[in-house]
Design a protein that fits this description.
The chain is built from six helices and eleven strands. It is of the alpha/beta class. The protein has a single domain, classed as Vaccinia Virus protein VP39 (Rossmann fold), CATH 3.40.50.
């Protein structure tokens, strides 16, 4: 077993399982993706650290435990279409590709779009489409989606994203309130969104979600 594979197993056992992430589909999906390939070479030795990992340009990969717990709450099924917002280098999309039928990975940074495409292609992950665009706008033309996941903390969830959820769909994010982050789920039933906080979760902000008129929840 390689050093990276050992680190990945340690992350699963010491960060995920001890925090009640025991869905074997999620464990298998995380185990299948070499997280170290999605970070700068200088950061590969700390790719599995239990905190948000800076990848440059003010962007981060989400803390593994929080990411996995959001996936657990999302209950992504093998027939689901997922929108991954702020995919950065593509790690999150790669993991969700192992859970879903297809993933649309939205990224506002053109350089990161190219990098994500390269990384996903190198791993022969074929069920992810990387799309360049504003994070808060979503990708309505490729929706509606069963699951939407935001890869960073936000102060508000735009109504435009909620409109891209299917009936029965789930949106997962970390919502900031007075500097405190809480994992947050919005479920859509008969066109009516219902929001609920889940657990404490402090992660780095995701650009593009500054509060504006028309934002809800």
């Amino acid at each position: 077993m390689t050093e990276s594979a050992v680190a990945r197993s340690h992350m699963i056992d010491c960060q995920l399982r001890v925090n009640e992430v025991n869905d074997e589909r999620i464990i298998d999906a995380v185990r299948a993706v070499p997280r170290e390939l999605f970070v700068p070479k200088a950061k590969r030795s700390v790719a599995y650290v239990d905190e948000d990992l800076a990848i440059g340009g003010g962007r981060y990969l989400m803390e593994p435990m929080i990411f996995a717990r959001l996936l657990d709450e999302a209950q992504i099924g093998p027939k689901d279409l997922v929108l991954d917002i702020g995919c950065a280098t593509g790690y999150s999309a790669a993991v969700m590709a192992g859970l879903a039928d297809a993933v649309v990975a939205l990224e506002a940074d053109a350089d990161l779009v190219k990098l994500a495409e390269k990384k996903l292609s190198s791993l022969e992950i074929m069920n992810v489409a990387v799309v360049e665009g504003a994070h808060a706008a979503g990708v309505a033309k490729q929706g509606p989606f069963d699951v939407i996941v935001l890869e960073g903390a936000v102060t508000e969830v735009p109504a435009a994203l909620l409109k891209q959820l299917k009936d029965g769909g789930r949106l997962l994010c970390v919502k900031l309130d007075g500097g405190q982050g809480r994992a947050h789920i919005v479920t859509m039933e008969a066109g009516i969104p219902t929001a609920m906080d889940l657990f404490d979760a402090n992660i780095q902000p995701l650009p593009g979600f500054e509060k504006e008129a028309g934002f809800v929840f």
